[in-house]
Amino acid sequence: MSAASKANKRQPKKMKSGVATAPTDKGFEQCHWFFNDELGPDAVSKINKEYVQKMYSPEDAKAILANPEYNFSMYNGRAAAAFWLLKGLEIDDPRYAHYPEYLQNVYDSLVQSGKQILESRKSPTTETGKKALSPLELLAIKVNGTILTDLDEMEDEWIRGEKSSRDIYQLFKIHDVKGQGAVNQVLEYITDRVNELREAKEKKCEQLVEAFAHVPKKELDRRISVFESMVDDLEKIRSAAKATRKPRKRKAQTADKQVKDLKFLKEDNEYRLVSISPEQVPGSIRLYTFNVKTRVLTEYVTLAKSGFQIKGTTIQNHDPESSRSVKLRKPHEFLSTVLSKTPRQIDKEWNKLTTKTVEGVNGRINSDSILLRVLDK
Fold first, then answer.
1. Residue 298, SS3?
2. pLDDT in tens, 219-250
3. Contact 23, 38 (CB under 8 A)
4. Of 315, 325, 250, whose CA–CA distance to 278 is shortest?
5. φ, ψ dihedrals at 300, nearest 5°
6. In the 8-state DSSP scheme, what is residue 266?
7. What is the C-alpha separation between 54 and 65, in angstroms, rounded?
8. Among residues 24, 36, 155, which one has the least CA distance to residue 83?
9. Most distant CA pair in the chain: distance in Å?
10. DSSP readout, 227-255?
11. Inter-helix orientation angle 41-55/99-120, to 10°
12. Rounded CA gap, 140 and 203, in Å?
């Protein structure tokens, strides 16, 4: 065969792959499923970044793209919407009609954090040449990449029609996330979502009503309930974080000796409770305990200036007229109040309980008792 014949021989066409094969003629849902099933993190990240670069000013785009890579590579649904909108197509499925606003809100929220990251890069570096992030910044990055990513995945499942949920208490344990900062970050995320759902349900925002028009009222209620349950668990996690605080130095020596024989339950998975350090009890004015076996909540109050004292397994100095106990029918609901409210607010809710309050508690703590909370007033 001559050289000319070889040159004229038709070469086989290269098979398209990746984003190039994404369907655009069968509606957005098919494109959405394609992105979920066929594309890997690199392709997803590339599309999301292209969207940012086109839709934002160079300064804001630079800030957004300074955020950790998982913000772009882990969200196939976002990439599908970005790809569709970059093509100049309209999202025709009401179940996904909220995506344009969703994308804007997501990337708008990354502008400020990105600017902070860029600014931190100007700060002095460590000996290895890497920028030194503060513990709070490192925690925020970890929360974004673990718990908030799990919640984003849950919402993607909702879009696909799944009635899923997440156990926020277990997520904190699985990812080994601790601290008030982490709780506040997740609480802010959940609060924003709950407010959106409520405004859609109560028709307070036209955009949100339109965005969730395809979601039945019953499903909106279910989603709100899922998030509210998470808020309750976050209060218990917050309490557990407080429990790890060391007692004040002025109490350390005597408290350590007082509690050495005290028997109590350190943690209970059923009610998702963690006991405070027993060394916080001596010297305090008010103590709440909960017996996980009998479901009895006890409030100890002392009038002594020196506060409580502990002898063996018994709380000393508690005032029998001010102290009280009650059996809880719905522990999960009332315990959240005990862990987060003021004594006056707790008393108000306590008076609403239908079970009988018992006065004259004996002060004994046993191995089924969770040390919930201490107060100095």
1. strand
2. 999 999 999 999 998 888 888 767 666 665 55
3. no
4. 315
5. -100, 135
6. S
7. 12
8. 24
9. 110
10. HHHHHHHHHHHHHHHHHTSPPPHHHHHHH
11. 90
12. 33
